């Protein structure tokens, strides 16, 4: 499973954040999605997640479906996952002593539903589906943008290996300056 986030379609309405809070975080004030601007900061469900490699208890795991998830009862609360996530996508719930991160709404996936954030996105900026379908959609959207004379890039070099593909017009648009 894979998600495409097209920042060129995001209107920063925060519907994804609200849906995430309602679906996953009723008792937790930290949304798992962290999308305060049009650039998403939620878990990338990396192809080779550092957070799982350095988790001493084995609480963080990558499922066969490609979702980086965790087993609450195994978590030691050591916070190593926060340190090793290259995207800063893991929060920590101090009251429970455990990490909080995007799980692609794994309980919804088990029942055949898509993640809450993609289900409510009014512009289609967030789309979830089978890996091949999402990768094709990403390529098609990039070609469409370029065909209209707009810039279009994928955010990271592993964009097609991670569980999330982020399509954007430029890194500078979101405060990234790779030339410095």
UniProtKB/TrEMBL annotation:
GO cellular component: cell envelope
Record localization: Cell envelope
A Pfam family the protein falls into: Fer4_11
InterPro entries recorded: 4Fe4S_Fe-S-bd, 4Fe4S_Fe_S_CS, FDH_Electron_Transfer_Unit
Domain 4Fe-4S ferredoxin-type span(s) in chain numbering: 1-30, 34-65, 66-95
Keyword Iron-sulfur part of the UniProt annotation: yes
Transcription listed as a keyword: no
Protein name per the record: Formate dehydrogenase iron-sulfur subunit
Originating organism: Thermanaeromonas toyohensis ToBE
């Amino acid at each position: 499973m894979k998600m495409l986030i097209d920042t060129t379609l995001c209107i920063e309405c925060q519907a994804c954040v609200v849906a995430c809070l309602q679906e996953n975080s009723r008792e937790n004030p930290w949304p798992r999605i962290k999308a305060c601007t049009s650039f998403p900061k939620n878990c990338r469900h990396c192809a080779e997640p550092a957070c799982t490699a350095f988790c001493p208890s084995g609480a963080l795991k990558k499922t066969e479906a490609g979702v980086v998830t965790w087993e609450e009862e195994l978590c030691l609360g050591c916070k190593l996952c926060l340190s090793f996530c290259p995207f800063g996508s893991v929060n920590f719930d101090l009251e429970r002593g455990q990490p909080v991160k995007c799980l692609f709404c794994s309980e919804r996936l088990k029942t055949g539903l898509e993640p809450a954030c993609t289900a409510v996105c009014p512009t289609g900026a967030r789309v979830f589906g089978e890996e091949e379908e999402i990768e094709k959609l990403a390529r098609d959207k990039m070609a469409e943008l370029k065909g209209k004379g707009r810039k279009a890039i994928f955010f990271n070099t592993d964009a097609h290996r991670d569980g999330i593909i982020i399509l954007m017009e430029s890194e500078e648009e979101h405060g990234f300056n790779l030339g410095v």
